[in-house]
User: What shape does this take?
Amino acid sequence: MAQVIARIPLNYRGFEEDVGFSDDPAYFTDIVFGSWEEQEVSHESSCTSGDYNEDDDDDEISPCNVEENNKFWETQNQLLQGTLYRTSSLETKIRQATKEAMKEIDGVGMYCLCGKPMAGACRSCLQREISIRLQNQGYNCAICKSKWKRSEEIPSGEHTFLEVVDKLNSKKGEVRVVIESNLRAEFEMAKANQEYKQFVNRLPEVYVGKTERLKALIKILCSAAKECMKEKKMHLGPWRKLKYMQSKWAGTCERTTPAPCLPGGFSDRPPKSRASMLTCDLSETLPVWHCTAVQVL
Assistant: This one.
């Protein structure tokens, strides 16, 4: 069966987030959400005076700055937790279906065309297998590939992720749910401070949630990354900026629906090893072949 490919613009997407895979999720309630714009403005203003200067050689940290930093991370953690633990019945169902699909893949020990077990398979093979399994359960799941061009602010790039489109509710129209198999790694930074590392570790490794939630989540994380680099007096790379990160899930998207059957694709048997005369052990392949040792003088 041929693959179905469609291009759709995703600039309409809003965004926010989802919760990780948990058998007993706890839901945060009565969380007060402030404006991100107001929070950023208030934090960027110094409690003493002046703008932030990366070339400032004064390494002394005033009590006011420490209090400001603590307040910033406390606020960001509240925003992150409040966004993560908000969910809908549709997201919960898709999340559970994705969880079961990944467990089945790991349990069966399937192999992909790359020759690796599915537990450590390449991203494209894993996405394709999850998409097929969700399709078999009745979900309109496809692999989305976003691309964006280079601009003065960010470099060009591309990204792939899974997306489920639900049209059952005529009042709300289409509901789009993103499945990102490695969300945490997308925001990890090698030179991050301890606060940022702990912040990112709160993320689920696998994200399943509406695009509206994902945008809010990206904004929170990019704000934290910016503050982290500011505290370390380091430059924030353009590939870490908000516009670049949003382009991964909000650029022009090519939507591909994998065929349910993949001839010669996934299998529960390990791939056969290929051997040549350079690697073949004749003593194993010809056990009845007896050789007499000859001493060379």
Remarks:
- Residues 4-285 form one domain.
- The radius of gyration is 25 Å.
